[in-house]
Design brief:
Number of domains: 4
Bound molecules: adenosine monophosphate, magnesium ion
CATH superfamily of the largest domain: MoaB/Mog-like domain
Strand order of the largest sheet: 7-4-6-5-9-8
CATH class of the largest domain: Alpha Beta
Number of strands: 28
Number of helices: 10
Structural class: alpha/beta
Oligomer: single chain
Strand content: 25-35%
Helix content: 10-25%
C-alpha cells in the first residue's frame, strides 16, 4: 500500500509509536538466545565472542628490537664515535643472543630479543661499519628502539569482552596471545518469507501486474551482514491460511521469524491477523517514513518481526529496528549506529513523522561535507538506497534548509 494511502489511515491513531519508543519496546522483550559453541579462531570472523578472553602471556614476551641495527649499551656511546664497537654476535628474529660484553655490539634485526647487557639499538642508518666494528656519532637514550616486554599486553589482562563481534583486529589480537579456539554464540537462525501474490523470482518472466521479489534478496543479505543464518521459506500467497502455516513452520525451526509485506491494513494484508491467531502481536505502527507498518510479536515463544513491503522501508526499518533486536538476541552489545553532523545540500520539510532521507555525501567545496538527496524519495524507489551513502534523519515536523547541520547515518557503520 503506498505511503499516501496509509498516511490517512494511521497518522492520528493513538497507538502510533515514535522511533525511540519502538526500539525500546522491541528491546524490552528481547533476550539473548545464549547457546554457544567452541570454534577455531580461523573460522571466527563475524562471530560473537561468548567469553571474556584473558591473555596467558605478556606480548611481546621479551624486550626486542624495533629496528634493524646494532644492540649496544649506552655506556659505550663515547667509544662508538672514536674506536668503534666490535660486532661480536648476530641475532636475527627467532633466535637468542649471548650477554653483550662492554665495548661490543650485536647485529640485530627487528623483532629479535635484546641480549643481556644491551639497553638500546642504534639503527643501521646511523652506523658506519668498518673492519667488523660500528661507528656512530649520535647519542641514544636508554631503551631507544627497544619494544619492552608486555608493551602491548600483560599476562592476565582481559583482551576481549563477551559480546564482541569478532573482526580482523580482534582475531589478530587473540592470535597474538596464542589463543587457538574461542567460545562464540551459536549463529542466530532467522526464518524468512516474502508475502505477495504479485511477486515473481528474478530469472523468470513477468506476467502483467507482477513484479520481481526484491525484498527476499536484500533481506537475506542484510541478515547475513549481521551474522545470521537464514532459513529461506520463499514467497507465501496472500491468504490467511498460508501466512499462518508458514509462520508456524518458521517458528518451529528458527530463533526468529522475519517477513516482508502484508502488514498494512488492506484486505490482502494477512500477517497481523495470522500472527494473532498463532501468537501475540505487540505493536505495529511507527511514526516514521519510510516504514510505518511494522509488526512485532511472538509465535509461541519464537519472536517475530514483520517488516513493511516497500523495499526502501524494508531496508530502513531493518537497520533501525531489526538490527538492534538481532544484536540483543545474539548476545552482542547493542551499538547505536554512528552518526555524523554534515551540511544539508537540500531543503526538506518533514510532516508529523520522522523521516529518513537517502543522501550521498560530497566534499566538492572543500570545506563542509555536504549531503545531497536522491531525487526520488518514495519508499518503492530502491535506486535511492543503492545510490546513497546513508540516511539523514529529519525529526518530526522539522524543516531543513540548505546549509543547516543535519545528522547523517552512514550505511557503512550499520553493517557491523
Ligand atoms: P504490502 O505491505 O504487502 O502491501 O506491500 C507494499 C508494497 O511493497 C507493494 O507495492 C508491494 O508490491 C511491494 N512489495 C511487497 N513485497 C515485496 C517484495 N518482496 N519485493 C518487492 N516489492 C514488494
Ligand atoms: Mg502485499
Amino acid at each position: 500500500m503506498p505511503d499516501t494511502a496509509t498516511d490517512a489511515c494511521f497518522e492520528n491513531q493513538p497507538a502510533m509509536l515514535n522511533v525511540e519508543q519502538a526500539i525500546a519496546g522491541l528491546l524490552r522483550n528481547a533476550n539473548a538466545v545464549g547457546k554457544t559453541e567452541c570454534i577455531s579462531l580461523m573460522t571466527a570472523a563475524g562471530r560473537i565472542l561468548a567469553q571474556d578472553l584473558k591473555s596467558p602471556i605478556d606480548v611481546p614476551g621479551f624486550d626486542n628490537s624495533a629496528m634493524d641495527g646494532y644492540a649496544i649499551n649506552t655506556n659505550d656511546i663515547g667509544r662508538a664515535s672514536t674506536e668503534g664497537l666490535q660486532i661480536t654476535q648476530r641475532i636475527p628474529a627467532g633466535s637468542t643472543g649471548e650477554t653483550l660484553q662492554p665495548g661490543s655490539c650485536a647485529r640485530i634485526f627487528t623483532g629479535a630479543p635484546i641480549p643481556e647487557g644491551a639497553n638500546a639499538v642504534a639503527i643501521q642508518e646511523i652506523c658506519r661499519v668498518e673492519n667488523n666494528r660500528i661507528f656512530f656519532a649520535q647519542t641514544l637514550c636508554n631503551a631507544e628502539n627497544i619494544r619492552p616486554r608486555g608493551n602491548d599486553i600483560t599476562t592476565g589482562s582481559t583482551i576481549l569482552h563477551d559480546g564482541t563481534l569478532l573482526q580482523a583486529a580482534h582475531l589478530g589480537l587473540a592470535a597474538s596471545v596464542g589463543i587457538a579456539e574461542v567460545d562464540v554464540y551459536r549463529k542466530l537462525t532467522v526464518a524468512t518469507f516474502s508475502t505477495g501474490d504479485e511477486l515473481v523470482e528474478p530469472g523468470k518472466p513477468l506476467a502483467p501486474g507482477q513484479i520481481y521479489n526484491s525484498n527476499r534478496y536484500q533481506l537475506q543479505a542484510l541478515l547475513e551482514s549481521q551474522g545470521c543464518k537464514v532459513i529461506d521459506l520463499g514467497t507465501v500467497a496472500d491468504t490467511f491460511a498460508a501466512t499462518r502455516d508458514t509462520l508456524l513452520q518458521g517458528a518451529g525451526q528458527a530463533d526468529l521469524v522475519m517477513t516482508t509485506g502484508g502488514v498494512s491494513v488492506g484486505e490482502e494484508d494477512h500477517v497481523k491477523a495470522a500472527l494473532e491467531s498463532v501468537g501475540e502481536l505487540t505493536m505495529w505502527r511507527v511514526k516514521m517514513k519510510p516504514g510505518k507498518p511494522l509488526v512485532f510479536g511472538r509465535i509461541g515463544k519464537t519472536p517475530f518481526i514483520g517488516l513493511p513491503g516497500n523495499p526502501v522501508s524494508v531496508f530502513v526499518t531493518f537497520l533501525l529496528f531489526a538490527r538492534p533486536y538481532l544484536q540483543t538476541l545474539q548476545g552482542r552489545q547493542v551499538t547505536e549506529p554512528q552518526s555524523y553532523e554534515v551540511r544539508a545540500g537540500f531543503d526538506y520539510r518533514a510532516k508529523q513523522r520522522r523521516e529518513y532521507v537517502r543522501v550521498r555525501l560530497s566534499n566538492d567545496t572543500g570545506d563542509a561535507i555536504t549531503a545531497e538527496t536522491f531525487s526520488r524519495q518514495g519508499s518503492d524507489v530502491m535506486s535511492s538506497v543503492a545510490w546513497s551513502d546513508g540516511l539523514v534523519e529529519i525529526l518530526e515536523g522539522e524543516s531543513v534548509e540548505v546549509g543547516d547541520t543535519v545528522r547523517f547515518l552512514p550505511f557503512s557503520e550499520w553493517a557491523r
